[in-house]
C-alpha cells in the first residue's frame, strides 16, 4: 500500500466544493484520499482520466474486487448491498431489466396527481409564514412522501426513514454505532414491508418488484431488499439535495432568476444544468481496480477503490451553454 491518504472529505469541502476541487485539480490529477468513514480511495480529478475510467473494463463496481475488508462505519450489510450500483454486467443488466419490468412508465405517470397533491399540501403549510426553512419544509418531506406513496409504504414512517438516512449520510466519522443501528432498523422495516406486500399485494411498486420476472429469472431476497433500499435512499437524498441546489442557484444568480421568470429559460433546462454543475452527489460510483492501472501515470494497485470527479468548467449554472 502507498503512503497514508492525505486528502479527507469533510465540512471544508461542503462549504466550497468548486474551490476545493479546483485547488486539488491544480495540485495533481490523482489524489490518495480517505473518505469520512475511514476507507482509503483514489480520487481522479481530470476530465479525460474520468472519461477513460468510466469505460475501463478493468475497473469494477463489485466490492469483491476490493483489497479492504469493507468494515468501515457506514459499510452496508450484504443484504442491503446487493443492488445494481454494486454489480457489473451481466448481473447489472439482469437487475436493471427486472427493475424496469416493475418501474413502468404507466406507474410513474399515474403518480403525477398524487405528487401534485403532496406538493400543494407542503406549500400550503408554509404559505402564511414570513420565512420558511426550505429543506425541512419541502425538499426533505416531498421525496419521502412520494417514495412512500409509490412503493405503498405507510406514510407515517417517512420521518423515521429520513432520520435513518440522515444518520447514514452524516459526515461525522465518529458515529459507526449509530450508522449500524440505523441500518439494522431500516433493514427490519423493509423486510417487514416486503412480508406485508407478499401477504397483501397492492397496485404499487413494491408489489410490482415482488412480481417482476424475466422469463424464469426473479430477484433473490437480498437483491429485492437491496433494490427497495436503493430506491428509498437515493430517491430521498438526491431529490432533496437537487431541490435545494436549484433553489440556491435561482436565489443567488439574479440573471438566471429573471430569465426563468421571463420564460426565456425553461426550468427543465435549469434542473439539467444544476445536475451537471452542482449534482446531489459529486462523485461517480466508486470502482475497484481488477488489475493495476495508471491514470496520469499514477500507479493504482489492484483492489484499490477509485471514485472520480469530473471537471466543472462553469462557475455557475448556465443552461444556455
Which helices and strands occur, and which strands form pairs?
Blueprint: E1 7-8, H1 11-15, H2 17-27, E2 30-34, E3 40-44, H3 47-54, E4 59-60, H4 78-81, H5 91-102, H6 105-110, H7 112-124, H8 134-139, H9 141-151, H10 158-168, H11 176-199, H12 205-211, E5 213-214, E6 217-218, H13 221-252, H14 254-262, H15 267-277, E7 287-289, E8 305-306
* Rg, Cα atoms, Å: 21 Å
Helix/strand order, N-terminal first: EHHEEHEHHHHHHHHHEEHHHEE
CATH topology of the largest domain: Cytochrome p450
**Numbering strands along the chain, what is their spatial order in the largest sheet?**
1-2-3
The share of residues in helices is 40-55%
The outline comes out as globular
| Main sheet makeup | 3 strands, mixed
* Contiguous uncertain segments of 5+ residues: 70-74, 310-316
Number of β-strand runs: 8
Query: Would you identify the CATH architecture of the largest domain?
Result: Orthogonal Bundle
- Helix segment count? 15
Task: Report mean pLDDT, rounded to a whole number.
Answer: 83
Fourth-tier CATH superfamily name of the largest domain: Cytochrome P450
- Which class of the largest domain in CATH terms? Mainly Alpha
Number of domains: 2
Q: How far apart, in Å, are the first and last alpha carbons?
A: 43 Å
**Class derived from helix and strand content:** mainly alpha
Short précis:
This protein is mainly alpha-helical and 321 residues long. The strands form 3 sheets. A 3-stranded mixed β-sheet has the order 1-2-3, with no helix packed on it. The chain is built from 15 helices and 8 strands.
Amino acid at each position: 500500500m502507498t503512503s497514508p491518504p492525505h486528502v479527507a472529505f469533510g465540512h471544508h469541502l461542503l462549504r466550497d466544493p468548486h474551490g476545493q476541487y479546483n485547488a486539488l485539480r491544480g495540485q495533481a490529477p490523482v489524489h490518495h484520499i480517505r473518505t469520512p468513514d475511514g476507507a482509503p480511495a483514489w480520487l481522479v480529478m481530470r476530465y479525460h482520466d474520468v472519461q477513460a475510467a468510466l469505460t475501463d473494463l478493468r475497473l469494477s463496481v463489485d466490492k469483491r474486487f476490493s483489497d479492504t475488508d469493507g468494515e468501515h462505519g457506514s459499510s452496508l450489510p450484504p443484504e442491503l448491498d446487493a443492488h445494481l450500483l454494486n454489480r457489473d454486467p451481466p448481473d447489472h443488466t439482469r437487475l436493471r431489466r427486472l427493475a424496469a419490468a416493475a418501474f413502468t412508465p404507466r406507474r410513474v405517470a399515474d403518480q403525477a396527481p398524487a405528487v401534485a397533491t403532496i406538493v400543494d399540501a407542503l406549500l400550503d403549510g408554509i404559505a402564511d409564514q414570513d420565512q420558511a426553512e426550505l429543506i425541512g419544509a419541502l425538499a426533505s418531506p416531498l421525496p419521502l412522501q412520494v417514495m412512500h406513496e409509490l412503493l405503498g409504504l405507510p406514510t407515517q414512517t417517512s420521518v423515521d426513514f429520513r432520520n435513518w438516512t440522515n444518520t447514514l449520510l452524516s459526515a461525522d466519522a465518529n458515529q459507526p454505532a449509530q450508522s449500524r443501528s440505523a441500518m439494522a432498523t431500516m433493514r427490519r422495516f423493509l423486510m417487514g414491508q416486503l412480508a406485508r406486500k407478499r401477504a397483501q399485494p397492492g397496485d404499487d411498486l413494491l408489489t410490482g418488484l415482488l412480481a417482476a420476472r424475466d422469463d424464469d429469472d426473479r430477484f433473490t431476497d437480498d437483491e429485492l431488499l437491496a433494490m427497495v433500499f436503493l430506491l428509498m435512499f437515493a430517491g430521498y437524498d438526491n431529490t432533496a439535495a437537487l431541490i435545494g441546489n436549484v433553489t440556491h442557484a435561482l436565489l443567488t444568480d439574479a440573471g438566471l432568476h429573471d430569465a426563468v421568470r421571463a420564460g426565456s429559460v425553461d426550468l427543465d433546462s435549469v434542473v439539467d444544468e444544476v445536475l451537471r454543475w452542482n449534482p446531489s452527489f459529486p462523485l461517480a460510483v466508486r470502482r475497484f481496480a481488477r488489475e493495476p492501472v495508471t491514470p496520469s501515470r499514477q500507479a493504482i494497485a489492484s483492489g484499490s477503490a477509485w471514485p472520480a470527479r469530473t471537471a466543472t468548467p462553469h462557475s455557475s449554472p448556465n443552461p444556455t451553454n
